[in-house]
């Protein structure tokens, strides 16, 4: 059996008694954190990895059954924690990586000290009493477009997610990362992400949580943050006065400041 460290292209850097474990969002590899990590590396051990099918992970380790739900990706994360004998971890997750991190913390809370979750959404669809950001028909059309023309979809999806049209280089960053993904796995992963309803799981999380959201995010609107805080009243919710779904790329200094405050609490 392949080691989880090889399977997920795990890299360890920095030094310190506490560990920060970074969990990427959809389509991203671990390099997406490079605007954040330098300020932490002198004080913390940093663990970074790629989801199976992304970056330099081993695509051959992809299991359609296991990775047919976010729980499978959460188990990959826990495999890494076990392999490295991690404890007292601060998990920093973005988007679906945040949801994967929360699921891992629900299943094995003994590994984690706190969760810092950027732009988390447990459910992306709109319903009568819930605003996830996407209507059913829009989601259906988006997934059909992705199936028919993956690269064309990437060209449209990256600027939509990044949400800063005045800084096109940011979308290029995400576009480049998406293009490194195995297209077949990426299509399946996208369906798992956008069609999963993890709202019932949120209330099961017992690890302290910081939710970081953006004031203008088309992927995870403010109503999602309201749902998260209402579901976990003991959590902390911080809204950054920025646009887009990737504040660790578009507003890294502001994001680091909020993260540092919670780390010191």
TrEMBL record:
Decide whether keyword Amino-acid biosynthesis is in the record.
no
Which N-terminal stretch is annotated as signal sequence? none
- Presence of the UniProt keyword Hydrolase in the record: yes
Q: Which domain of life is it from?
A: Bacteria
What's a single GO MF annotation on this record?
hydrolase activity
Keyword set for this entry?
A: Hydrolase
InterPro entries, per database record: AB_hydrolase_1, AB_hydrolase_fold
Q: Which residues form the AB hydrolase-1 domain?
A: 20-255
**PANTHER family from the entry?**
ESTERASE-RELATED (PTHR43039)
Q: What does the sequence similarity comment in the record state about its family?
A: Belongs to the AB hydrolase superfamily.
| Stated name of the protein | Alpha/beta hydrolase
